[in-house]
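Hello,

Our lab assistant flagged a job as stuck in the queue for most of the afternoon. It eventually completed. Since we weren't sure the result was trustworthy after the delay, we are filing this so someone can double-check. Below is the sequence as submitted and the structure that was eventually returned. Let us know if re-running is recommended.
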Amino acid sequence: MGVGVSGIAAVTVLVTDLARSARWYRDVLDLAFIREFAVDDALWGVVLLDTDAKFVFVLQDKGTAPGVQDLRGTRPVVLAAPSRASVENTAERLRGMELSPRGPVTDPDGTFVDVTDPDGIILRFRHVPDEVSLGFQGVSYSTDGSVVGTYDRPRLQMPSRDRS
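-- returned structure --
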């Protein structure tokens, strides 16, 4: 199944302070600063490259995207970690940077650690073990993010796909 996509090439995050966020993402993810963009001589955004995974983070000044809602508390970016140990090592590294990560946490999909960027956006590092079922499973969380239970019937009512 799928449409021939082999991965994610870029992720764009809207930020309130381009310099502060570029420094934070560069340091937390060990990225290379490879581009910046300006419109009418005003700095608009930067591109940071992950040389190992071959994808980029585009950080865009939030002021250049009128009408965009506040993303504080959301997880628009979830990065794949190769193992549970990798998630644990990332958590330790983030603690060493005095960033107060949440986790590692284990849930029905594997193990993750969250860290919040300077704009309040949550960046998640997640390991999904091979044995995780890719069939439907609902997961209930409490407001603090703890897993409270699972369920096997979707609550979302969607029409069947038209395969014609």
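-- support follow-up --
The delay was a queue issue, not a problem with the job. The result is valid. The two ends are 16 Å apart (CA to CA). The chain has two helices and ten strands.
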